[in-house]
Design a protein that fits this description.
Blueprint lengths: L1 E5 L3 H9 L1 H5 L10 H8 L10 E10 L2 E11 H7 L3 E9 L3 H16 L5 E4 L1 E2 L5 E2 L1 E4 L16 H7 L3 E12 L6 H14 L2 E4 L5 H16 L10 H12 L8 E5 L2 E10 L2 H4 L10 H7 L6 E9 L8 H15 L4 E8 L3 H9 L3 E12 L15
Parallel strand pairs: 4-5, 13-14
Antiparallel strand pairs: 1-2, 2-3, 3-4, 5-15, 6-7, 8-15, 9-14, 9-15, 10-11, 11-12, 12-13
Helix pairs in contact: 7-12, 8-9
Length: about 375
């Protein structure tokens, strides 16, 4: 018999997080998250996202063993912005068992329905600005920093529960070894000559003011993207603090014209390559292992690239790619991943592919309508 437990204590939360370890223990590509980071992500008061959202965490047990987990999430900002009643699920993990998947998805849907939601979308861990989607292609590769890796059977389980694709997002890999295509070099020279712009690295000594500039471009540039919800100031600062320790100024190019920031990009070293050595804990010994192996990080992930809408026909996106490529090569990185890219972002896809970028992973976001509260076919009266 399956039992569902609502996470109520710090001990329960630790069980929720740690249930992934035995699930992936034989998978060479999974990178254990830092337990402390995931605790902070899921804890109201430690993650500013929860100031405008709520969640419930559920654990599934079978024969007294933990066999699955799911989070039900409501983002008030999303629903206010899009005039929807969409709830989300996230942090899904389970063994390959349809009955367990059914229990987890249904309990999450019922919790969302009890709060007036009409649809359930996910996975979002915990929202659009962080990790999203189930992996559907690319299981033979390691995930980059702040990107998920999920079991190959998750799409099958989800689709059997009535969840259908709403959007795919891609990860593109671009190597630095071959050099920049000549046509891109010519384009960049022409852009710089025509617009008399300045391209500079982020100033880490004035990070607070720089963060505000970057956020301003991000909010405007991304506002019409599918599912986009602007960061609050606190959320953006929270992300910046997480990335500050690994940031390289050259990998955060900023395009300015007469002192106005027009475009920017953010890339970071892929610390996932060495974080797996910590096995979820930096202290007492994980930190030493990571420190001793930091020279092995040889690739980057491009997280953000944004151009103000009034300047999108000026080629500044190509200019940013060029600056990132040049910086990555300078620092000895063999290549970088652009992730994630919406499947229908044709312009960006064309630019990346024009200089050798190839899709290496596909992630899928699902959605389904949910029964109104009180009308579900089965009651989870064995919640404990």
């Amino acid at each position: 018999m399956i039992k569902i437990k609502t996470v109520r204590s710090k001990k329960d939360l630790r069980l929720f997080i740690k249930m992934a370890w035995p699930l992936y223990k034989d998978n060479p590509h999974w990178v254990p998250p830092l337990i402390s980071d995931l605790e902070a992500t899921l804890t109201p008061g430690r993650n500013p996202f929860w100031e405008n959202a709520e969640r419930e965490l559920f654990l599934a047990f079978k024969d007294e063993k933990i066999v699955g987990r799911i989070a039900a999430i409501i983002s008030r900002k999303h629903n206010e912005l899009y005039k929807e009643k969409t709830g989300f699920f996230g942090f899904y993990e389970s063994i390959d068992d349809q009955e367990i998947a059914h229990a987890l998805y249904e309990v999450a849907a019922q919790w969302l329905a009890s709060r007036g939601m009409t649809h359930m979308r996910g996975p979002m861990n915990p929202y659009i600005n962080e990790e999203i989607g189930f992996l559907v292609e690319g299981f033979d590769q390691d995930p980059f920093v702040m990107m998920p890796y999920t079991m190959s059977y998750y799409p099958k389980l989800a689709e059997a529960e009535g969840l259908a694709k709403i959007k795919d997002v891609y990860s593109y890999w671009a190597p630095t070894a071959a050099g920049m295509p000549e046509k891109v070099e010519r384009l960049v020279k022409a852009i710089k000559k025509r617009y008399k712009i300045t391209v500079r690295p982020i100033d880490m000594k004035h990070l607070e003011s720089e963060t505000a500039l970057i956020k301003g471009v991000h909010d405007e540039a991304w506002r019409n993207n599918w599912g986009a919800v602007p960061f609050t100031d606190k959320e953006f600062i929270h992300i910046v603090k997480q990335l500050k320790t690994i940031a390289i100024p050259d990998l955060v190019p900023i395009v300015e014209l007469d002192g106005k920031v027009l475009a920017m990009a953010v890339a970071v070293p892929d610390v996932n390559q060495i974080l797996r050595l910590a096995n979820g804990r930096l202290f007492p010994f994980g930190f030493i292992k990571v420190l001793l192996n930091q020279h092995k990080v040889n690739r980057v992930r491009v997280l953000i690239l944004g151009v103000l809408s009034a300047y999108r026909r000026h080629g500044f996106d190509a200019l940013l790619y060029y600056e990132l490529f040049k910086a990555a090569r300078k620092h000895g990185f063999v290549g970088g991943e652009f992730s994630w890219i919406l499947e229908d972002n044709v312009k960006m896809i064309r630019i990346i592919e024009s200089w050798g970028g190839k899709i290496t992973k596909t992630y899928r976001v699902y959605q389904k309508p949910i029964e109104p509260a009180g009308k579900a076919k089965r009651k989870w009266d064995y919640l404990f």
